[in-house]
Amino acid sequence: MYYFALQEGGDDEAELYRSALVKYPITIVEANKELTLQAARYKAFQKISYADAYAAGLTKLRKAELVTGNKEFKPLGKEITIHGYNRKDVEHKFNALLKKTMPQFVP
Fold first, then answer.
1. How many other C-beta atoms can be found within 10 angstroms of the C-beta atom of residue 75?
2. pLDDT attached to residue 106
3. For residue 20, what pLDDT is reported?
């Protein structure tokens, strides 16, 4: 998401976005061997970026749900749970999921 803010609004908007993100319970996950191999499997057989392959791999390994506006994930819908295919939908799903799981973080 920082990437999109940087791309669309430049450094100032990206920094503003980054500072807002620290309010949410976001964890940076380091790539380990298991995650890297799962990402490589997705990258080898899907038309997705390597970064997206990591997101999909982490989703699968953690048995989590992926909220994204990227349609390239759609073919992986049989292997992982994916929510949203456009930005408004993603924002709505993210806020609903956040409200359901961590209401203390929703204004």
1. 14
2. 62
3. 77
3-state secondary structure of 37: helix
Q: What torsion do the CA atoms of 40, 93, 99, 8 make, to the nearest 10 degrees?
A: 80
Parse the chain into domains and list their residue ranges. Answer: 1-30, 31-105
Predicted confidence at residue 14, as pLDDT, reads 82
What's the pTM value of the predicted model, to 2 decimals? 0.66
Q: What separation in angstroms does the CA of 8 have from each of 11, 42, 86?
A: 9, 28, 16
Using CA atoms, how far residue 93 sits from 10, 45, 54, 71, 77, in Å, is: 26, 28, 21, 15, 16
Nearest residue to 84 via CA among 74, 25, 1: 74
Measuring CA to CA, which residue among 3, 29, 30, 7 is closest to residue 18?
Answer: 3
Which residue numbers in the chain have pLDDT < 50?
A: none
Tell the burial category of 104 from Cβ atoms under 10 Å away from its Cβ (0-12, 13-18, 19+). exposed
